[in-house]
Structure prediction request, 103 residues.
Amino acid sequence: MKIKNIWYEFEEWADGYDEYDENSDVIFEISDSTKWCASFFTYRNLLSLSKKNQITGEYLSGKYFLADKPIFISEMKKDIILSVLNDIIRTETDLSDVFTRVD
Prediction:
């Protein structure tokens, strides 16, 4: 399987983004014409979200964090994301274990 098309949510943000402290969805289509969504979080963003939730009271004031099928990466960069996606596609037998299918 190969990636045919890919859309990076963070490329749409007018104000830019912090490649070290961010989370973003990525939607991609593979060679069998199925489309998938992956949610990427930088490691630093997990800590930032925890601190924010301590202030806002969300997630029991930061005692936990909940995300559907998160993928953690060092930096929010297209080349890193693409290499992660290709590695997962190459090694996983069931993509629905890692990604969310988009109809």
Remarks:
- The helical segments are 43-56, 58-62, 78-91.
